[in-house]
Amino acid sequence: xxxxxxxxxxxxxxxxxxxxxxxxxxxxxxxxxxxxxxxxxxxxxxxxxxxxxxxxxxxxxxxxxxxxxxxxxxxxxxxxxxxxxxxxxxxxxxxxxxxxxxxxxxxxxxxxxxxxxxxxxxxxxxxxxxxxxxxxxxxxxxxxxxxxxxxxxxxxxxxxxxxxxxxxxxxxxxxxxxxxxxxxxxxxxxxxxxxxxxxxxxxxxxxxxxxxxxxxxxxxxxxxxxxxxxxxxxxxxxxxxxxxxxxxxxxxxxxxxxxxxxxxxxxxxxxxxxxxxxxxxxxxxxxxxxxxxxxxxxxxxxxxxxxxxxxxxxxxxxxxxxxxxxxxxxxxxxxxxxxxxxxxxxxxxxxxxxxxxxxxxxxxxxxxxxxxxxxxxxxxxxxxxxxxxxxxxxxxxxxxxxxxxxxxxxxxxxxxxxxxxxxxxxxxxxxxxxxxxxxxxxxxxxxxxxxxxxxxxxxxxxxxxxxxxxxxxxxxxxxxxxxxxxxxxxxxxxxxxxxxxxxxxxxxxxxxxxxxxxxxxxxxxxxxxxxxxxxxxxxxxxxxxxxxxxxxxxxxxxxxxxxxxxxxxxxxxxxxxxxxxxxxxxxxxxxxxxxxxxxxxxxxxxxxxxxxxxxxxxxxxxxxxxxxxxxxxxxxxxxxxxxxxxxxxxxxxxxxxxxxxxxxxxxxxxxxxxxxxxxxxxxxxxxxxxxxxxxxxxxxxxxxxxxxxxxxxxxxxxxxxxxxxxxxxxxxxxxxxxxxxxxxxxxxxxxxxxxxxxxxxxxxxxxxxxxxxxxxxxxxxxxxxxxxxxxxxxxxxxxxxxxxxxxxxxxxxxxxxxxxxxxxxxxxxxxxxxxxxxxxxxxxxxxxxxxxxxxxxxxxxxxxxxxxxxxxxxxxxxxxxxxxxxxxxxxxxxxxxxxxxxxxxxxxxxxxxxxxxxxxxxxxxxxxxxx
Length: 931
Description:
CATH class of the largest domain: Alpha Beta
GO molecular function, one term: hydrolase activity, hydrolyzing O-glycosyl compounds
Radius of gyration: 32 Å
Family: Belongs to the glycosyl hydrolase 3 family.
CATH topology of the largest domain: TIM Barrel
Number of domains: 4
Protein name: Beta-n-acetylglucosaminidase
Domain N-acetyltransferase: 638-710
Domain Glycoside hydrolase family 3 N-terminal: 15-341
CATH architecture of the largest domain: Alpha-Beta Barrel
């Protein structure tokens, strides 16, 4: 007999009744329709999803929920229904009621307040209002980390790009909901924070991060929420493709649900699938089969949003799976026990049939209104105001005209608050002007109240018109010329690129305005991001930049108060950008001096030795063979400047930073940044970093920055061999403004025991079966064709490596792969020995403790069809050349990407050093304050 705790309560013997509890389904309409009634009565449906399409007001929502519960009770359900909905605040609210339901900021808006107690208070208030209308399950909190802010379909639904900050706010939201006696559902596991959209919009988005990468960042909030008692988890329908995981739909994968979520993260609550009414799933698997797969993967509740035939297909598919033995009864009962346990936390028939309703909402109204005002007033963020344009009274005389330009936007998803927008989507570009008594525009309603509020505050007129993907039109130019100041509103310009282009164009026009005397006079421009704060967060050319995090009426009311000086802005950008700006301002502690070779070389060698001996930093194998001279290129065409923090009394170095500027591509590089292990966390690294950035910014033609360089080949980027150290360094650089989410893998590999090495037979066969010939060339006679070939590669140091090889005969050469017939170069690599000038800048050659030759910087033409064969052919010829010179090992450096490594490992190479190369625009740091 099974243990007592595993026994089901009486009344649950029937399979159909058991299976009904394992589905959550939605329906169309604001009243009970025959389909949802049938699902509850005939199919024993246990959970109902309500959306904005079902809910017109708090009163009608209460009535609808009560009717659903009454139907379930009359149909003999042993326990009440789960009534679930999304209520994320900001623009994503399923239930909206101007009188009884309060509006609160989005998740990112709450994070902008910097107050975690406020996050819990807002979640509690939200939960109490939902509980009053009969809801018992909230589909939240959102626990996704925006690991790539440039590609972020979630936008302000998350609390930012820092996993620990997202984790902390997620727990506060969760605790607030639970305090209101709702059960919670974390989403969207394993992460929607860095999705790639590789095909059409109907294709499933893909997660390309490895499980290790996810574990170090994206999974942190999920793991923390589980530890603190998360009730349920929604697993997304995304696909996953990386080393160690290849999943078509995460919620159908046993590896994701049972392995990663259940076993690795030790989650014992209810697992909910993403809605299976996905076109890709329907086309590839079918909903019936998908339901069986999701259940076998470990999902306890299967979500199907609205289509009654599809919902029936799912139920029948599950039943067929049980009858055919694909799913065991024990698996069904396991999920049922989890569901019943969670229902016992949040509902009973006494509660379900007696919702508090409007009486309770009326009592909450005063305190919740005050909380809403407080939350919005403290979330509005003035990111920059370089020229003190705020408050507007600084720049506008009473009779001056103010121009408001707003984008044509679609209603926010799942938001009842924006229903009215659809009534006004036929937008006119005709300007509408208000004075304090004029009627408001008949244009796009989502921003009309903003214009109205701006006009109420002052005697002067407010001009308002919209802009579209058609860009700046003559009417816009005329209005800009007429107005004394311009406000441009953007809403997710990262995804609506026309907004970005329009705003930059308007900025250019404002900067080129002329006075009556013909003098250039910049017209005040204020840019307001009313959704994602990342639109212009790192663009200092936008001198006055304000963020509201949503464009609900309440948010825009608080914005107007800030613009007119009635309210001091208190919000700050969440996550790494805000910290980077604060660090730039707060950590200028150490005197940074230019590196002096005569004075500092010996001290730098001592510092390098200390780093190599530092066991806590993972033995720092990258520094084997590195000396103080390794950092010095002494190349006329490359500007180099190196910096130290030192003890002027003892001459000891506490930190060192090397920088290089490559004029041809306008790239400034931080080639190394090292700090004495015994003096970490004292801001030495920050001081060196800031000095390096300032110096590079002064270079004429500076366009972009890069962490890591191919020449000298010491650090090709952030060291990636040690996962703990890699995570720490990624976070450290992210805090300084580097977008580490956009890093690119690069590595050096080694092949040992050359004397006994033989190439795999398949490689010899492949090389013999192509129309590619290979040769080794030396000297400048071959420069034109080689340099023409490599100009397609923009990685820093690569061109210089090739120039050194061309001038380094006989110790350096270039192996070419050429197409037979026309002699077109298809690929090249540099080959060199320990006596070459190039070897002085490639210290990895000295780390093998044996005679070693080098192959560097393979570059394959983008037009090559058989990429693997060409790179293996070049490498094979390089190995033969090096072995002919008596070397026992070969190092191949500057290898791009994981796929190249796969090709080389097939030849016997193993990883020597792995890095993550990071790039960003120079504009990232032009906002830094002066020293």
